[in-house]
User: What shape does this take?
Amino acid sequence: MNLKNSANTVIIRDVYNDIGSNMISSEPLVDDILRQIFVQRGKGIRPIFMALVGELVGGSWESLRKGAVVIETIHNASLIHDDVVDKSRLRRGVETLNIKFSNRISVLFGDFVFMKALSLAHTIDIPEAVHIINVAIERMIEGEISESLTNEFIDEETYLKIIGNKTASLFAASGELAVLLSGVDGYKKDLARELGESVGMAFQIIDDTLDYNGETDVMGKPQFMDVISGNITLPVIHSLKRLPSDEVEALFANKKDSVNRITALVKRNDGIEYASEKAGEYVQNAREIIDRFEEKKTSAVFDEFFDMLMTRVC
Ligand code: FPP
Ligand code: MG
Assistant: This one.
């Protein structure tokens, strides 16, 4: 994502400064590794989204900043665990903890970072905020479990359910929380949750296209990880759906050897184009949700965000 917008830069700086101040341990060995984990910042898409939703309903960045820090911390914790699950070796351009240390260390640090997020969440003085966060975490874990347990070729509907749980859930919570922390209640919270769900779906679908058409150096994570880890995503679902089931089974029986053939099929059958169109439909849905806010005149603030979402290369 190209962060040209200075407001976005401020948000990322604020969030990662706060994460840094919160991410401390009295145990020097733990503290040292925590510093290493957060040297690389994330793209801050969820906090940026929260700031935009806050702006939409008349809230200030400061009123929702802590919520954004909680959300971004949960996201970071989930990636530490996800890299163990996916056996990934690179994240944000550097070796993952599981490669640098071990799965054992990764799981424990993921737990630690996750716990820091929860402790911070409990300092938000609105019980509903913690509930919103808990609902999202439960769905994230369910999504990650379903993805890991699924070892057959899934259809589009199953894929959408999985990514809704593993990814859109945290975006939905981000939207809802942004409204709540802006001091607004009622239908706008529900709309913002729906908006986040759509944004999260578009985000993950684009992420899944990058696995096929992105560049490792630019993305800071390896290409073709989904194929190698057996994660069936939309480009491949679309591209292989007309193949006889025994051929599909054979392809996925030896995923490493089939990477070239699978990526060739994705290219030939326009898997990336299909998935991008689908992501575009979710963005269109998001625009329509924004129109249902009474402040729809300010929906222009989202234009650049949607553009970033659809055209990002990392
Ligand atoms: C990245 O997906 C992973 C997620 C969106 C969610 C991961 C969720 C968990 C591990 C469970 C929740 C855990 C905690 C601690 C809250 P991806 O593999 O498609 O993305 P990638 O290509 O960036 O790895
Ligand atoms: Mg992964």
Summary: The chain has 16 helices and two strands. The chain has one domain: 7-311.
